[in-house]
Automatic annotation (TrEMBL), chains A, B:
SUPFAM superfamilies: NAD(P)-binding Rossmann-fold domains. Signal peptide: none annotated. It comes from the Bacteria. It comes from Caballeronia arationis. Keywords: Oxidoreductase. InterPro entries: NAD(P)-bd_dom_sf, P5C_Rdtase_cat_N, STEAP_metalloreductase. This is Predicted dinucleotide-binding enzyme. Residues 2-93 form the Pyrroline-5-carboxylate reductase catalytic N-terminal domain.
Length: 217, 217
């Protein structure tokens, strides 16, 4: 699969690297520093390149949106059309201080995004785990049980693609249903942040969801 | 410990029964049916009684608030003063249809409750697991690993009490910090509901939070 990465910070950088390592063709984009993009692509191996958002998007089968919420309009304008593509978003709609969700309960960042690009298929995923844990999950992907990763969306074929990607990078995908569930998933992402960064749980934090008999010994 | 149960539906009924079985003195209250309260108390064994909300509250060391959000004012009026007591709330601030949170992001049900009873010490707990799984968790409490249960509050001694109770009934307590975190815990409770009741996960659903190396094999 060809995957365009919009936003190459810790989330986009780690996820893009993982996608490249399992064999997808990845294009990193949207960093203030071209040197950083080049370094990311080099470190991610032969399947990774870098470019501008339009280059990352135009041939992509799937676009990962991993920018700060305040930069969504800017990166979408630079990316050009995403019509018909799956857009996987790990954005939480945070304010400039990263302290509060700016949308919720009656809507969500994912739903607002879907309204901005109505001809694309939006999947919300990866906003519920700290970026620090991603690479450890990837490196432990042969172990079991795996940590869970919750996602949601309205288009079943996009969700199949998302689910397969989530599995490839080492998580157990949990389908939470329609995109509207992002109203709860995004606050859960905030809760994950509180636990990872403000408690003794620490940023190497993950979660498992499931039937009790699969969680306990 | 003496524990008053305000609200004896599935959450309050199960939790009260579990508290009684581990040795606490429990008083069930606030059901439309006195017969139901009597049956609950009988089934919970020698440590359980039933009464009205005032009787459940007046001698209690800890009060469990397990009513529908729309009944909070009513049950608090019936209960009388909770000054100085720990009030453990598992209420999510749902609307009449149980479909939406009515408070959030800039506040939470737990914070609104704390403002209603400013001389009490509010702990938010048990709103993140389906009532159906409680008894199974209790019965499996000798097994490990245990499912997690997230809680928060502003008073450290009340939180110690809450943490001990959560442990006694079979969960691994996770302290999410101050009461304000209920803004994220309550939506996570909604997410738990979506997973338990609207997906193949099923209502025998629980979760584990933690460092990756404690989650994976």
């Amino acid at each position: 699969m060809k995957i365009g990465i919009l936003g190459s910070g810790r989330m986009g950088g780690n996820l893009g690297t993982m996608f490249a390592r399992v064999g997808h063709n990845v294009v990193f984009s949207y960093s203030r520093s071209a040197e950083k993009l080049a370094r990311l692509a080099r470190a991610a191996g032969a399947n990774a390149r870098w470019g501008n958002p339009r280059e990352a998007t135009q041939d992509a089968d799937l676009v990962l949106l991993a920018v700060h919420w305040l930069n969504v309009d800017d990166v979408l304008a630079l990316a050009g059309s995403t019509a018909g593509k799956t857009v996987m978003s790990c954005c939480n709609p945070l304010d400039a201080d990263d302290t509060r969700l700016t949308i919720g309960h009656t809507s969500s960042g994912a739903e607002v995004l879907a309204n901005k690009i109505p001809d694309s298929r939006v999947v919300a995923a990866f906003q519920t785990v700290p970026s620090e844990v991603l690479m450890s999950v990837f490196e432990n992907r042969r172990n079991s049980p795996r940590p869970s990763l919750i996602f949601c969306g309205n288009d079943s074929s996009s969700k199949s693609v998302a689910s397969a990607l989530i599995t490839e990078v080492g998580f157990d995908p949990i389908d939470a249903g329609k995109l509207e569930t992002a109203r709860y998933i995004e606050p859960f992402g905030m809760l994950a942040g509180v636990l990872a960064y403000e408690t003794e749980q620490g940023p190497d934090w993950a979660y498992r969801f499931g039937r009790l008999n699969r969680l306990v010994g």
